[in-house]
């Protein structure tokens, strides 16, 4: 499924995971196909491409239009040398979410090896500092193209990437148990625990109440909700969870009329109408709702779920992103946006179940 029905081509890696999350409720086979399209285009080294097009995959900077090939590269990088391009790893999570609906263990069996190889690619190639924490080499791989997290250049070691990897490992452990690969279970669980403890030891900023991104070990002074994504691990101590909830619910930072802005309201980089520099994205909210639930905060998860549903309902169309102050969708945001619709659907189903008690 393309990101939008209008003028937006290609099957995009992490978009497909969110599409699967929505489709699982009505058409689990279509949901599986979203993941299959990405997995069948896996590269020999395990990496999953950023985008699959009719004419081939987009998997490095050299596959971009010429005018974009130099964007986002680390200083001194020869633009003639390909930089791999992928997207945040969420496939194990999406596969498991489909299984929760239809119980098809054959599908889990089908995806287990390729997803394992894909995670191996991250573990082998994405830890430049050798500290057991992972980063992105290019803004496109982070999925956050113009985020101020990237204003100082690449690479960026990112708390959300580490959180997603923990989420994948824990889902792989659960998948391994379901398909009878019992010996693999402790390996995945240990990896999840190790990443989480490195994250807490090195990237928790108690004063900011957020996990921080860093570049060559230096914290990046930009406040975004991606520093709250470690909630998704469900492995944080109560005190850190409490601080993160305080940060998220602060009306001066992350809880305006329409939470959650992709840059804090009081951050100098905040721009309510500019893509990843402030607007609300429904898929980001969907992840934060799950993070709150996994971290033992069901009331806050329900509050964010309702705010997100209200925002979506208040607009005539599912849009790529929304202004957190007015709820309106900026002109440049793509219309008829697939992951916004999918996130809405998934949250609406959860809301219905919650209200039925
Ligand atoms: C934009 C987003 C990216 C997304 C893509 C397709 O480039 O930044 O995260 O995958 O659009 O929707």
Protein described:
The structure is a single chain. By secondary structure, this protein is mostly helical. Helix content is 44%, strand content 6%. The strands form four sheets. Strands 1-2-3 form a three-stranded antiparallel sheet. It has a two-stranded antiparallel ribbon with strand order 4-5. The protein has a two-stranded antiparallel sheet with strand order 6-7. Helix 1 (13-23) runs parallel beside helix 11 (338-355). The longest helix is centred in the N-terminal third of the chain and has 21 residues, at 105-125. The structure holds alpha-D-glucopyranose. The site of alpha-D-glucopyranose has 7 residues, from helix 1.
Spans where pLDDT lies below 50 across 5 or more residues? none
Largest sheet: 3 strands, antiparallel
Number of helices: 11
Radius of gyration: 19 Å
Instruction: Walk across the major sheet and give the strand order.
Output: 1-2-3
Measured by DSSP, the beta-strand proportion falls in: 5-15%
Return the average pLDDT rounded to an integer.
97
Q: Which distinct ligands sit in these coordinates?
A: alpha-D-glucopyranose
Helical content, roughly? 40-55%
Counted beta strands = 9
Q: Helix- and strand-based class?
A: mainly alpha
Shape: globular
């Amino acid at each position: 499924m393309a990101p939008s029905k209008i003028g937006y081509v290609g099957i995009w890696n992490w978009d497909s995971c969110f599409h699967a999350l929505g489709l699982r409720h009505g058409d689990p086979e279509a949901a599986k196909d979203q993941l299959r399209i990405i997995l069948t285009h896996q590269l020999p080294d395990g990496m999953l491409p950023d985008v699959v097009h009719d004419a081939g995959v987009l998997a490095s900077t050299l596959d971009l239009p010429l005018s974009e090939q130099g964007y986002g590269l680390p200083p001194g990088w020869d633009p003639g040398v390909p930089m791999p391009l992928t997207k945040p790893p969420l496939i194990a999570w999406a596969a498991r979410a489909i299984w929760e609906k239809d119980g098809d263990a054959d599908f889990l069996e089908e995806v287990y090896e390729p997803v394992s190889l894909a995670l191996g690619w991250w573990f082998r190639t994405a830890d430049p500092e050798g500290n057991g924490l992972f980063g992105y080499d290019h803004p496109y791989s982070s999925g956050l193209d113009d985020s101020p997290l990237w204003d100082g250049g690449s690479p960026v070691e990112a708390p959300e990437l580490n959180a997603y990897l923990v989420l994948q490992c824990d889902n792989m452990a659960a998948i391994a148990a379901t398909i009878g690969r019992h010996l693999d279970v402790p390996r995945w669980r240990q990896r999840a625990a190790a990443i989480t403890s490195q994250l807490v030891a090195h990237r928790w900023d108690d004063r900011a109440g957020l996990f921080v991104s860093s570049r060559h070990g230096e914290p990046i002074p930009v406040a975004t909700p991606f520093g709250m994504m470690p909630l998704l691990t469900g492995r944080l101590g109560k005190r850190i969870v409490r601080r993160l909830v305080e940060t998220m619910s602060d009306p001066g930072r992350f809880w305006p009329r329409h939470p959650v802005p992709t840059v804090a309201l009081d951050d100098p980089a905040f721009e309510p109408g500019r893509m990843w520099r402030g607007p609300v994205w429904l898929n980001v909210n969907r992840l934060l709702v799950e993070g709150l639930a996994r971290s033992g905060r069901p009331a806050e998860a329900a509050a964010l779920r309702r705010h997100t549903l209200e925002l979506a309902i208040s607009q005539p169309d599912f849009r790529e992103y929304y202004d957190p102050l007015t709820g309106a969708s900026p002109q440049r945001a793509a219309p008829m946006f697939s992951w916004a619709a999918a996130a809405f659907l998934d949250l609406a189903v959860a809301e219905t179940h919650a209200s039925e008690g």
